[in-house]
Amino acid sequence: MVRKIRLPLTEELAKTLKAGDEVLLTGVVYTSRDAGHKRMCEALAQGRELPFDPKDATIYYVGPSPAKPGQVIGSAGPTTSGRMDAYAPTLLSVGVRGMIGKGARLPEVVEAMKTYHGVYFGAIGGAGALLAQCIKKSELIAYEDLGAEALRRLFVEDMPLVVIIDQEGNNLYEAGRRAYLEKISK
Amino acid sequence: MREICADLITDVTERLCIEANEHLPSDVKEAIQNCRACEDWEIAQGVLDRIIENYQIADAAHVPICQDTGMACVFLEIGQDVHITGGDLTGAVNEGVRRGYEKGYLRKSVVRDPVRRTNTGDNTPAMLYTEIVPGEQIKITVAPKGFGSENMSAIRMLKPSAGLQGIKDFIIETVEAAGPNPCPPMVVGVGIGGTFDKAALLSKKALLRPIHSSHTDPFYAALEKEMLEKINRLGIGPQGFGGRTTALGVHIETMPTHIAGMPCAININCHVTRHTTEVI
Fold it and tell me: Which of A116, B26, B191, B262 lies at 20 to 30 Å from B174 by C-alpha?
């Protein structure tokens, strides 16, 4: 069953989400990927603030293609999350709770998610045209010089996602595969 | 001798960059649909339905199938009786990429230097491969390659004693290690033989073949079939959420090699396996 959820991603909401849950997500998310994460972590190391309030925030790992005239945004599917693993624990420690991407995460990210009650959602990689339709507003808020990697505030509506790793550390990549293999071995 | 103007190469490259990024080849669409029909795991069925919906949206709205519009891999087969006039060939291809990525609202994903990482701003340079062939035509293939899958590729200089089993193990190991990262269902390109670099090129060229086309040698055709079946019993499934459909196809390309070696390269592609060709 698909469940509708609304951001911000509070600790209470995070605790209700389990690996394997399919959700339709509505609310504000911030876009960032490799270069943006590097800058955000440098800012924090220097005692500066992030370009957005990290409390209960959700980051979407995406570098969209340019918007055509009349479009809110170009194609906008997830990028591989593992490249943000070096930065994710730091961002979780300052309040970021949700991450949207695709692909495996390192154990240290999962540990930080358990400590700070974070949730890792998967969007369908390679479905950038479909996912762009859920993005209703896009506003550039920082790091404009990074082009596709600039930091944007998006308003998304009913974005189809799956909880991959929940705040207890349960992992759909492991459990889903295991369940399927059990089924075909019967 | 036939003269072909460099401007024509630019124009065709521009058009192919846009076309490849907006329209998935029909053989790839067919492979995805066939896999959907065979998929027996619920969450996997849902993912494949969304993947199909996605390429339909891209077709209809003329938008990129995926936001990672890739590095522009351009393959030119140049007839030896062709004389290119009015400009430099590499420059003509790069100008086509520059225009295509600008005009098509495609993402510029290339950095000038691998360590210092400043974006070139126009997705150039193209990854250009030229081959001289008989004839007086030029065959241009543009294959935008995303890096989610490129990053999961691998090469190994296997010992001849590793034999066929060594190749099979390396393929499975690489797909296992890739897991959910390269946006499965994936296409697996395998290059065996040649030198270190030739094996890698063969594996990339293998991705250009129509899905489910077979190697001309029945020995390798059987290996392709066996590996696809094995991969689709790993349980990784579409997006790694579990399921049958882990790969759409396994394509193997081979060439002669040295008595001391058995290079094996594996180039992974995602379900957005893009390529388009025009002959001028």
Answer: B26
Contacts B106 to A, Cβ<8 Å: 65-66
B103 close contact with A: CB closer than 8 A: no
Write b or e for each residue in B153-182: b if 16 or more Cβ atoms lie within 10 A of its Cβ, otherwise e. bbbbebeeebeeebbeebbeebbeebbbbb
Report the percent of chain B where pLDDT is more than 70. Answer: 100
Q: What is the ipTM of this complex?
A: 0.94
**Cis status, amide bond into A160, omega within 30 of 0:** no
How much is the pTM?
Answer: 0.95
| Binary contact (A127, B148; C-beta < 8 A) | no
Q: Which residues of B touch A126 (CB under 8 A)?
A: 51, 54, 65-66, 146, 183, 270-272
The answer to whether the beta carbons of residues A72 and A134 sit under 8 Å apart is no
Half-sphere CA count of B192, side-chain side, radius 13 A: 22
- DSSP of A35-90: HHHHHHHHHHHTTPPPSS--TT-EEE---PPPPPTT-S-S--PPPBGGGGTTTHHH
Across the interface, whether the CB atoms of B235 and A184 are under 8 A apart is answered yes
Tokens linked to B273: 């396996």
Quick one: tokens of A154? 């998006």
Q: Do B66 and A80 touch (CB under 8 A)?
A: no
Tell whether A144 is within 8 A of chain B (Cβ).
no
Label residue B92 by pLDDT band (50, 70, 90): very high
Q: Determine whether the interchain pair A62/B57 forms a contact, defined as Cβ–Cβ distance below 8 Å.
A: no
**Tens digit of pLDDT for each residue in B27-77?**
999 999 999 999 999 999 999 999 999 999 999 999 999 999 999 999 999
Q: Is the dihedral of CA A97, A86, A106, B241 positive or negative?
A: positive
* Tens-place pLDDT, residues A96-125: 999 999 999 999 999 999 999 999 999 999
What are the structural domains, with CATH classification, of chain A? 2-185 (3.20.130.10)
The residues, any chain, with a CB within 8 Å of residue A82's CB and separated by 6 or more, are A103, A104, A105, A106, B181
